[in-house]
Design brief:
The protein has a 5-stranded parallel beta sheet with strand order 3-2-1-4-5, sandwiched between helices. The longest helix has 22 residues. The protein is built from 21 helices and 5 strands. It has 3 domains: 125 residues, HUPs (Rossmann fold), CATH 3.40.50; 116 residues, Serine Threonine Protein Phosphatase 5, Tetratricopeptide repeat (Alpha Horseshoe); 176 residues, DNA Cyclobutane Dipyrimidine Photolyase, subunit A, domain 3 (Orthogonal Bundle), CATH 1.10.579.10. The chain is globular and about 80 Å long. By secondary structure, the chain is an alpha/beta fold. Helix 4 links the parallel strand 4 and strand 5. It is 48% helix and 6% strand. Bound molecules: flavin-adenine dinucleotide (FAD). Its cofactor is FAD; (6R)-5,10-methylene-5,6,7,8-tetrahydrofolate. Pfam families: DNA_photolyase (PF00875), FAD_binding_7 (PF03441). InterPro entries: Crypto/Photolyase_FAD-like_sf, Crypto/Photolyase_N_sf, Cryptochr/Photolyase_FAD-bd, Cryptochrome/DNA_photolyase_1, DNA_photolyase_N, Rossmann-like_a/b/a_fold.
């Protein structure tokens, strides 16, 4: 008899999980299967909404699909403690990371496992198409999304990888008593959650997807730009934690949508799934992208170092209601609508001329759906420094964004109570309210809601000038 180990990471589900399926398929009658989870110090670094959500998913998985066996600390220490308990380990299966911290950690662990003589089986499971699957004719990787997407569409999609649940439960072992608890330092599972997360785990993911495919998906192309509407799938947090796989999302869309209904929404949604793979591929190809501008000429921009300005952006006190509503949505819920992400990222980098890396790191702390590749991709796009980014001279106007995408101020009012009674005429620029109107609306500018912290027109010109100087 040997024990096979499945190392669970950001694939916190039983359904459609390649490594788990392969491990179960290869078990002999006498073998046992142990589910492992490694809590690396990096995973608990600055505990905030992002990590809180992730660990709530770990907790739900442990309770409904586990038990998970936890090991703690740097790679060597953690895996040493594993093999002290599991002395008959034969094979280890996991869905490997192709990018970022996970990739480096996997490389370190692979070396340890090889030394130990363990048979290692790794798979690509997190994207729909792995980084090297979508290539140009000459084998090179794409820089621009449109041709990438054309090629992505042509490729046959990997099928769902269903796990033999009966066999899994026959072989699943519970040796948790032999594993240490990790103490206070590491054990995030006993902490009180930072907020009352309602949407956690595999079951919740499948339910949300079904609700989205029932109707909203057909109007996704139109509704996806309106932050006050519940018009997007909210799949990102589940994809990030692996509570659902991108294959399941893709195939459910294909199978469960009605071909006789509007297809513009369905097609537009599939395109966004490809965007996730695109940014994954870009990050794979440019591991330095988290720290460095991909466009060389835009390296070394003299960013504004004023911390107080940065803090006002973080708190949502810029005096631009659309920007402030978005930041409050992020701070309170760990999620922000895509249209608003683009607007706040543009505002930080162009209107405030603050380094996009600071924004990227703040999102890292707060986003329940944080994916390094998509976040870095999104920030470098907004800062005009990435591949296929917004041109530097096209600066988002925060008031115009507000008027177009939140015409009645519903999103603004949902997140900024001080503006709840401001009439529609002034909702995008409340500082323009005459004194009498301010009193009537119960919103005195400078007391209840701030003046705009910058003059957009001037800041736009300044940003264009700064970028232009780098370019020339
Ligand atoms: P839907 O609109 O329903 O889209 C479906 C899925 O497609 C999403 O769940 C996501 O997996 C993928 N997707 C959609 N848009 C994008 C995109 N632009 N790039 C990559 N994938 C996309 N997305 C993340 O998942 N994690 C991040 O950390 C992240 N950071 C971002 C930072 C900035 C500055 C910007 C502009 C965008 C960022 N995005 C990120 C992309 C996008 O905002 C979110 O994926 C989306 O808002 C998630 O909500 P949803 O699941 O309802 O998306």
């Amino acid at each position: 008899m040997t024990t096979s180990i499945v190392w669970i990471r950001n694939d916190l589900r039983l359904g459609d999980n390649i490594a788990l399926k392969e491990a179960v398929n290869h078990l002999r009658e006498e073998d046992e299967l142990l589910l492992l989870f490694h809590i690396h110090p990096e995973l608990v670094r600055d505990f905030d909404l992002q990590q809180d959500y992730f660990f709530q998913t770990v907790k739900v998985f442990n309770e409904t699909s586990g038990p998970l066996h936890f090991i703690y600390g740097e790679e060597e220490e953690a895996f040493h403690s594993l093999f002290e308990v599991v002395t008959d380990a034969g094979d280890i299966y996991f869905n490997k990371a192709e990018t970022g911290f996970g990739k480096k950690r996997d490389e370190r662990v692979l070396a340890l496992l090889e030394d130990k003589g363990i048979r290692v089986h790794t798979y690509i499971d997190h994207p729909l198409h792995g980084a090297e699957e979508v290539t140009k004719k000459d084998g090179g990787l794409y820089q621009v999304f449109s041709p990438y997407f054309k090629q992505w569409q042509k490729l046959p999609k990997p099928g769902m990888q269903q796990v033999d649940r009966d066999k899994l439960s026959r072989h699943l072992t519970d040796r948790t008593e032999e594993f240490s608890s990790g103490g206070e330092k590491y054990n995030q599972l006993t902490k009180k959650p930072l907020r009352d997360w309602q949407e956690v785990g595999e079951e919740a993911a499948l339910q949300r997807l079904a609700a989205f495919l029932d109707e909203p998906v057909y109007y996704y192309d139109e509704d996806r730009d309106i932050p006050s509407k519940d018009g997007t799938s909210l799949m990102s947090r589940y994809l990030r934690t692996g509570a659902i796989s991108p294959r399941t999302v893709y195939h459910r869309v294909m199978q469960d949508t009605d071909g006789r209904k509007r297809q513009d929404g369905v097609e537009s949604f599939i395109r966004e799934l490809a965007f996730r793979d695109f940014y994954h591929m870009v990050y794979y190809n440019h591991p330095e992208a988290g720290d460095q501008e991909l466009t060389e000429k835009f390296r070394g921009i003299p960013w504004n170092e004023d911390e107080e300005i940065f803090e006002r952006w973080k708190r949502g006190e810029t005096g631009f209601p659309f920007i402030d509503a978005a930041m409050k949505q992020l701070n309170e819920t760990g999620w922000m609508h895509n249209r608003a992400r683009m607007a706040v990222a543009s505002f930080l980098t162009k209107d405030l001329l603050i380094d996009w890396r600071k924004g990227e790191r703040y999102f890292h702390q707060k986003l329940a759906d944080y994916e390094a590749a998509s976040n870095i991709g999104g920030w470098q796009w907004a800062a005009s420094t990435g591949t296929d980014a917004v041109p530097y001279f096209r600066v988002f106007n925060p008031v115009r964004q507000s008027e177009r995408f939140d015409p009645h101020g519903e999103y603004i009012k949902a997140w900024i109570p001080a503006l709840a009674d401001v009439p529609k005429t002034y909702i995008h620029e409340p500082h323009k309210m005459p004194g009498e109107e301010q009193k009537k609306a119960g919103c005195i500018i400078g007391e209840d809601y701030p003046e705009p912290m910058v003059d957009h027109k001037r800041m736009r010109e300044r940003a264009i000038e700064v970028y232009k100087q780098r370019k020339d």
